[in-house]
C-alpha cells in the first residue's frame, strides 16, 4: 500500500512485527521497527526519499562500502510524552553534523528537507514503536554509505541514505570501570576523529577487547602523540569533575562535537556549576584521584545520555572514584531527560515536536 | 551446476559474461569475473568456502559494516605465462597480512587453507578471465566485512569473506604530480594505519580531492604530529632516490607493510643499489630537490607496482624531478613484473604457480 505523507511516498509493510516485541525488556538496538527511510544518491544528486518496509539491502560485491569504509552515521532518540506527542532532541544539530561528517568522508551532502521531512514521516508511520517506558526510547540511526561499484580507491559515485529505528532500553547498566589508554589511539591530528565515520569505531574494538580482558569495560582515549591528554570515553565524550568544577576537552579534529556534550555544558552553566572547556591531562586526573579532589568522571553521548565511571586504571594501578549521594552526573542526566521527554520546561528550545 | 575442486564446492554461473568484455581496453577494477569465493563466519567459526556466481550480497540494514567500518581487504594479481600457467606473487604474504589486519579490527582470523585453497579454486574456475596482454592482470580482491546485526558499537558476531576478481589494465597512466600534506593525515600512532582497513581509505578521499583541485593527482602523507616525516604516497608506500641511494620509511603502526615495498627493497639490494630504510624528512627531500640530488620518487603497491612521481608541491612551491633516461623505478618495475609473469628467473621464490 502506497500513500503520501509530508510529500514523501510511504510504502507500508504487509504486516507488523510489533506484537512480537517485549517492550518491557528492550536491549539497545537489537529489534527494528517495521519501516525505514531510504534515499539514493545517483546521477549526481540525492533523490526524494521514501518510507519503505524494513528489509535487506542488496549490494554489488564491489560496492565501495565493503572496501573503502565510506560510511557515516548519526544517533538520535525519539520519545513520546503523556499526550503522545513525538519528541526529538536538537535534530537539526544531528543533520548538520551528518553533513560535516559527509564532507570529510567525500560523501555528497544531503538536503535538509530530505533528512527532516524523511525523519518526521518515518516517525509518524512507526509511532507505535516509540516506547513510553521510563528510560526507554526509539533509537534513531541515520546513516549513509557508498553503494557505487569498483575496486579503484576513490570516492563512490552512488550512495544510500537510510534512517532505521530501534525501540531500545538503556545503553549501559550501572557504572563502568575504564582504562586510560597508553598505547592505542582512536584518531589522528588532521584525521577523521571529529566525524561520525564508521572506521573510527572499528578501530576501537580491539583495544577495548584488551581492556575488557584486564577487567575494564571501556577505554579512555588519549592523544596519539603523548597519551597525556584525555580525549574521549569509549564512543562518548568525557567529563571530569575536580572539586566542584566540571571539565571537558575542547572539540578538535580528533574529538566529536557531541550534542549531549554541548547540552551538558550549557545546562551546567545555568545551574551555576563552574565549567571549563580545556585540555585535561592524565597527570591531573591521577593527581586529583590521589588527593581526593576527583569527584566524578562520566561519558556523555546520545545512546547512554550520561554514563558514570566508577574508577579507572592507569599504568597498572587502579583508582576508585568516591560514591557520592548527589552527583552532577545524575542531576544533569535527569535535567536532560526531563527536557527530552517533556517533563520539564525547555528554556533552550532543544525539544522538537514532530 | 555444482562440482568439487580442491575439496571446495563450485556452483557455476548459468552463463558467462566474458564475451562482453574488451580485454584490450581494460580499466582498473571495473568489470568482474563470473565467479567469486564466499565464506561465512557464524556460530563462532569460519565455514568452508564455496565458489559461487558473482552476484549481489543481501544484508540487513543493521549489519555492522554499514555503521562501524569493520572491514579489511587485500590486493593481489594473477598472471598467465606463455604456457598458460596461472601465477601469483607472494600470496602467503597477503594471507598473513589479512590476518594481521583482521586482528587489529577485531575480526576473527581466517584459516590459511580457506584462503589459499579458495583462491586457487576460484582462479582455476575463472582462468579464462586472466588477461595475457602486457601490463594487464587479473586483479584479486580478498575482503572481509561485518555482516552481524545490531546498533551497539561492538564487534559483529558474523562476517563474510569474499574473493572477487577483475581483469584489469594498468592502475595509473603516466607520472603523477603529488602534494606533500601539511594539514591532513591518514593514520595515528596506535591506530590502524598499518592495516588494510576500509576506513583508512575513506579518510584519504577528501584531502586528495583538495589536492586534485590544486592541480595534483595524489597526496604524500606525512606524520600527523609534525608533518615533517614522509610516510605514504596516496594508497602506496613511497620511495625516494637521493643521488644513487634508495630510501623508504620504516614500517610502523602508521605505515602499511607493503609486499611490493619489501620486494623492491630486496631486489634493489641484489642489484647493488644502496637502500636505506629510515625516516625521511620533508626538509631533506625539499633540500635535495633544490640542490639537484633528488633523482626520483615513486609509489609502490600491488595495483600500480611502481608509480613514478614527476614532481611535488610543498608550501605553495612546486618542485620538478629530473627526466632521467634510466630510472630505478623502471628497472625495478621491469624486474618485478618479469618475475611475476615468468619472464625472468625468480631467485627469491616469490612466484607461486597455482
TrEMBL record, chains A, B:
Cofactor(s) in the UniProt record: pyridoxal 5'-phosphate
EC number: 2.6.1.42
Pathway in which the depicted protein is active: Amino-acid biosynthesis; L-isoleucine biosynthesis; L-isoleucine from 2-oxobutanoate: step 4/4; Amino-acid biosynthesis; L-leucine biosynthesis; L-leucine from 3-methyl-2-oxobutanoate: step 4/4; Amino-acid biosynthesis; L-valine biosynthesis; L-valine from pyruvate: step 4/4
GO BP terms: amino acid biosynthetic process; branched-chain amino acid biosynthetic process
Keywords attached to this entry: Amino-acid biosynthesis, Aminotransferase, Branched-chain amino acid biosynthesis, Pyridoxal phosphate, Transferase
PANTHER family the UniProt entry points to: BRANCHED-CHAIN-AMINO-ACID AMINOTRANSFERASE (PTHR11825:SF44), SUBGROUP IIII AMINOTRANSFERASE (PTHR11825)
UniProt-recorded name of the protein: Branched-chain-amino-acid aminotransferase
Amino acid at each position: 500500500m502506497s500513500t503520501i505523507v509530508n510529500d514523501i511516498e510511504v510504502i507500508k509493510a504487509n504486516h507488523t512485527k510489533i506484537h512480537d516485541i517485549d517492550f518491557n525488556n528492550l536491549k539497545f538496538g537489537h529489534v527494528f521497527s517495521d519501516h525505514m527511510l531510504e534515499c539514493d544518491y545517483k546521477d549526481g544528486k540525492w533523490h526524494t526519499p521514501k518510507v519503505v518496509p524494513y528489509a535487506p539491502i542488496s549490494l554489488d560485491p564491489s560496492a565501495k562500502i565493503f572496501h573503502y569504509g565510506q560510511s557515516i552515521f548519526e544517533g538520535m532518540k525519539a520519545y513520546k510524552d503523556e499526550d503522545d506527542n513525538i519528541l526529538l532532541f536538537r535534530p537539526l544539530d544531528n543533520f548538520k553534523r551528518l553533513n560535516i561528517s559527509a564532507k570529510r568522508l567525500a560523501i555528497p551532502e544531503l538536503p535538509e528537507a530530505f533528512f527532516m521531512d524523511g525523519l518526521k514521516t518515518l516517525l509518524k508511520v512507526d509511532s507505535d514503536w516509540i516506547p513510553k517506558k521510563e528510560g526507554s526510547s526509539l533509537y534513531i540511526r541515520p546513516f549513509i554509505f557508498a553503494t557505487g561499484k569498483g575496486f579503484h580507491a576513490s570516492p563512490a559515485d552512488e550512495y544510500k541514505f537510510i534512517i532505521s529505528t530501534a525501540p531500545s532500553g538503556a545503553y549501559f547498566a550501572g557504572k563502568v570501570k575504564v582504562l586510560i589508554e597508553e598505547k592505542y589511539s582512536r584518531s589522528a591530528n588532521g584525521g577523521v576523529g571529529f566525524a561520525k565515520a564508521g572506521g573510527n569505531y572499528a578501530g576501537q574494538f580491539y583495544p577495548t577487547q584488551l581492556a575488557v580482558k584486564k577487567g575494564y569495560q571501556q577505554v579512555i582515549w588519549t592523544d596519539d602523540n603523548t597519551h597525556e591528554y584525555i580525549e574521549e570515553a569509549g564512543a562518548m565524550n568525557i567529563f571530569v569533575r575536580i572539586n566542584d568544577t566540571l571539565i571537558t576537552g575542547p572539540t578538535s579534529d580528533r574529538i566529536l562535537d557531541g550534542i549531549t556534550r554541548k547540552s551538558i555544558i550549557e545546562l551546567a552553566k545555568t545551574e551555576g556549576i563552574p565549567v571549563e572547556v580545556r585540555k585535561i591531562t592524565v597527570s591531573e586526573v591521577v593527581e586529583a584521584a590521589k588527593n581526593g579532589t576527583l569527584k566524578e568522571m562520566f561519558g556523555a553521548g546520545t545512546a547512554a545520555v550520561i554514563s558514570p565511571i566508577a574508577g579507572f586504571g592507569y599504568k597498572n594501578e587502579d583508582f576508585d572514584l568516591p560514591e557520592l549521594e548527589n552527583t552532577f552526573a545524575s542531576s544533569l542526566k535527569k535535567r536532560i531527560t526531563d527536557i527530552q521527554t517533556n517533563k520539564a520546561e525547555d528554556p533552550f528550545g532543544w525539544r522538537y515536536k514532530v
